Amino acid sequence: MTPGALLIAGTTSDAGKSIVTTGLCRAFVRRGLSVAPFKSQNMSNNSMVCAGPDGAGAEIGRAQWIQALAARATPEAAMNPVLLKPGGDRESHVVVMGQPAGRISSRDFVDGRRHLADAAYAAFDDLRERFDIVVAEGAGSPTEINLRESDYVNMGLARHGSVPTVVVGDIDRGGVFAAMHGTVALLEAADQALVAGFIVNKFRGDATLLAPGLAQLEELTGRRVHGTLPWDPGLWLDSEDALDLEGRRTPDGSAALKVAVVRLPRVSNFTDVDALGIEPDLDVVFVGDPRGIADADLVVLPGTRATLSDLAWLRARGLDRAIREHAAAGRSVLGICGGFQMLGRRIEDPAGVEGEVGAAVEGLGLLEVTTTFAEEKALRLPTGTALGEETSGYEIHHGRITRHGGQEFLGGARAGNVFGTMWHGSLEGDRFRAALLREVAAAAGRAWTASGVSFPERREARLDLLGDLVEEHLDVDGLLDLATHGAPAGLRALEPGASR
């Protein structure tokens, strides 16, 4: 078949682009097609390592990694050729084709990004040659008219590849009809010619009440509504950049163990704790002050994109003292990557990787390690054994660890019931997670029985549920026809403010 592509844009950020893209990847691959997800540029501190050329690691956005699983494809750097990792309010670290590529400031957002667009277009063209269908996800809204000239994620990509585009709107926010109409109307004519339809997301209620509005939207715009996805609580996927940090609570508050995850300002890869969220006998809460960890059995310090500044934040709130007191009482602490580095003796930044050249601060002193930041980023997919169980993970860090004492633990260190690891994702290993929770329970004097739930199986079940919902509620065959044959000719051009 002719290689096809479809762009899933949205009326706003968090409209449901990732959900729809993921669901279509699963629906299309069920039809026997080879499918690749794609996002020209992702802005997120939640990333993943996949295998790169010559065995090297490559870093991509977590969402595209999940979408590759939905498509039953091997994740690769071309699926997210540009990744921006915010390191502050006005600056981001840049990853191009899986490798670090300097920094970009908000001043450069319009100018100085031509090389990023070139990398994105080359990756898209490459995927399109190798797969039957490329399902591309946009970013934010395609109608950011102040940024259109430099856009290569939304209509810039669509124009580059003559990619038909479908706009997703979140009806739960209200104003979805105006948002959909306005998204098309504010685009220039050549962009409008590629916007072929709409998808409504997160609908609750009686579909017959929605039908007249959908019919009128089609009449006003001359474009099809390709379906309405219902709101479903089971659609939770591995968290991405929406910062769904409200925790996972047991229904009746009778959990055997409580886990308090410190909500760092620059938290990254917080999907590390998603696997704890599926455990039926855990309360997992995110906290920002000492009171939140007072009754916790396990305190988790997650990864961060700014270890030094987040450590200062921790101290300013008295969380450093609370964590040390928690550990002194014999209860458990787990630090992951940047969180692990905070638990050590000292953190040094001779090259100014995080800001000031030569910066150095004392850590919490709970583990006998020193961290030294290096300019070269480590990207690895390690495997090993801890607590008697085999497990695996992924490493994304500039910090180099020197261990002065204590036990080795998953690329990190352990002292009593304080654990530090450089491995993200290790808790997704079911047997290792159960072994760690047994240690936590024993330290707390609590009973603990492994639940037997499987995180990989839960993830696959969620992807199948999403695929089922897409099959049931969207016109998958119509969207596939759109992807393979392009946007229909003669789509009506809308003028801003026009109703007909």
TrEMBL record:
UniProt keyword Hydrolase, yes or no: no
GO terms assigned for molecular function: ABC-type vitamin B12 transporter activity; ligase activity
Pathway: Cofactor biosynthesis; adenosylcobalamin biosynthesis
InterPro entries attached to this UniProt entry: Class_I_gatase-like (IPR029062), CobQ/CobB/MinD/ParA_Nub-bd_dom (IPR002586), CobQ_GATase1 (IPR033949), CobQ_N (IPR047045), CobQ_synth (IPR004459), GATase_3 (IPR011698), P-loop_NTPase (IPR027417)
Stretches assigned to the CobQ/CobB/MinD/ParA nucleotide binding domain: 7-235
Biological processes per GO annotation: cobalamin biosynthetic process
Keyword Ligase on entry: yes
Catalytic center residues: C337, H424
Residue span(s) of domain CobB/CobQ-like glutamine amidotransferase: 258-431
Pfam families, alphabetized: CbiA, GATase_3
Keywords: Cobalamin biosynthesis, Glutamine amidotransferase, Ligase
Entries under NCBIfam families matching the protein: cobQ, PRK00784.1
Function: Catalyzes amidations at positions B, D, E, and G on adenosylcobyrinic A,C-diamide. NH(2) groups are provided by glutamine, and one molecule of ATP is hydrogenolyzed for each amidation.
PANTHER family attached to this UniProt entry: COBYRIC ACID SYNTHASE, DETHIOBIOTIN SYNTHETASE
Family designation: Belongs to the CobB/CobQ family. CobQ subfamily.
Protein name: Cobyric acid synthase
